[in-house]
Amino acid sequence: MAIKYNRRRFVKTVAAGVGSAFLLPTRGADVIVWRFFTNAEARLVDAITEQIIPADQDPGARDAGVINFIDKQLASRLRRHQQVYRVGLAGVEETSRVMFKEDFAALKAEQQVEVLKALESGKAKGETWRKQSSSAFFRLIRDHTMAGFYGGPQHGGNRGYASYKMLGLDYPQIIGQNRYRRK
Amino acid sequence: MALKQVNAVVVGAGAGGGVVAKELSEAGLSVVLLERGGWATFEQHGHDELISQRITILGNAFGPDDERYRRVVSAGPGKWRVVLPSEGGYNNNAACVGSGTVSYGAMAWRFMEKDFRMRSTYGAVAGSTLEDWPISYSDLEPFYEKAEWEIGVAGDMSTNPFSPPRRKPYPMPPFPLNREGETLQAAAKKLGFHPFPVPMLRNSVPYNGRAACIKCRYCVGFACEVNAKCGTHNTVIPAAIATGNCNVRTHCVAKEVAVDDRGFAKGVSYFDADDREQFQPADLVVVSASATETARLLLNSKSKLFPTGAGNRSDWVGRNLQGHAYAGAWGLFEQETFDDVGAGATIAISDFNHGNPGLAGGAMLANEFIRLPYLFADRRPPGAPSWGKAHKDFQRRFYKRSMSVMGPVQEMPVFDARVEVDPEVKDHWGIPVARISGHRHPHDVEIGRFTSSKAELWLKEAGAIQTWTNVPGLGVSGGQHQAGTCRMGNAPKTSVTNKHGQLHDIPNIFVADGSLHVTNGGFNPALTIMALGYWVGDYIRKNWKGPKSFRS
Question: What domains, with CATH codes, occur in chain B?
């Protein structure tokens, strides 16, 4: 990777009844902390992926660093999907505003799910989806979310082997040992 | 500077080419083995689920890479789509010494006697070029045996009444059943099926100077961390090198087989690791680059006498592309079925390979290799949510409580399922790329429906609380089990090589890989490709009388 980036660190704030939002590091509004995403896109991707794998008794996409995975891969091995993301993310915001008159990240969780279901069905409203398929974009970001959540931490997601712990799957696998004994 | 003439150039160091290189160099021929990739090691990608040969979302672990390679696939009538090696549809096989044998699941099947006599057994099938092989199972049997002993197979066919006859047992005892295997064994017996351990090209005990399998979670798609998986890279290719007669040249990409004006091959043009074009003169050429790349190389090898490509006078090169439609079923269970004992696939039945009412063939059925968590995220009953809390609940509840039984449907060869050379798209070296089109025969789907229903029955008997089947449709075939594009046969009008893998048109060019398969069996094809490597190598050895051999 050619460019060094500032350390990415999220300070999360959770507003009651509102999908969680996060503040970017306080070094100034123009600090680029992402390899590919704009700050606004990052806020959106964070919200989308957290609905795809929401936190409950186990970590969700946010806690597992899925957005870091997607951003890192879009700047390297998955570079070919950059344009689809750029257009698709704008489309998600457009659909969100058409449906609920708000940015996606500001919607209530149930509203976010409704938007994502509209995308998934291919029936999402918005000019953007004349240019590219909303269901194809949803499948792509859903697939990348799964890869980030379940793949190895070396790729930027699955922080602390969050998903392996959730499944009770030892890693590294040492035969005869179980490091994540649950219950 | 011109390279020194050698007796044989073998293109492609996979299951077929590795074996032929060893057979020829052992017989004293000087051999150059060209391989487009390098030597693969476990350390390159370890247990990385996202960069393997099974899951390729972030790339192929052992190549080919997305930067230099391309293929074109059919995207509907008159439409074409460029695909990258890590994308579905490319029909990728690993680009490394050993090729797929480094990273395969390593099932070690012999085809059955009827698999070599499909036309005689079932008659003509409309829309298919179904035919008998020009060789029989008994012709190939000694070479299966050689593959099993030299490369190494663990197995036991004593409880499989459908197993074809064999002179010698396997060199290694079978792998024990894992928890899935035990559950399925009891169920199979209740149903009157005949279960047996899956034969594996993997050391169940130390063998050939390499360690026994440690039964880790990661096998299919990965290189083995203890080198217990048996491929050509750790058996016959090192043996070839040890003769002193075999020069393995890695990172060398073949461009064409040069054919002189009299109609004989004179060597192979290739690009070396520094992208410099080289010409390796040779007395004979063996092409063993996989069904897609072998066809592409022959089609790109145009000459005065054969302007449409080597071996292609009857327009059969690249035709009859086959793979395996994997049909099967999934089952969810109340109790834990997962014991983390790899590689996972331990039990099989051969009850439904043949003799199925109204069907021209069938498939072996086996339990699946361990499903890693990302892959499992896509395993859902039809209509189930694929994301959200429901996704997580399903992962948590069923990751360790599910089983899959599936098997490779023996496909009906289709003349228009084919590999051609694309008129426009070229790879990094400027070589025209392969273009793949056509689709499976409808009968493959009928067979898949039948075998998947048996898989579902088996899972239900094993106590599944919910089951569903998966039957592939009429998509383009090929995949890692790609075969059939240079069919062997007795009639030059309807085949590419004779029964020895020798081109009908150019006697000093041989093919030694899955391209030769007339039909592809209802089994994973690796051991058959290895056996064909021995078969072709044996013929060349026996008929080698110096540099002018194979010129008439």
Answer: 6-543 (3.50.50.60)
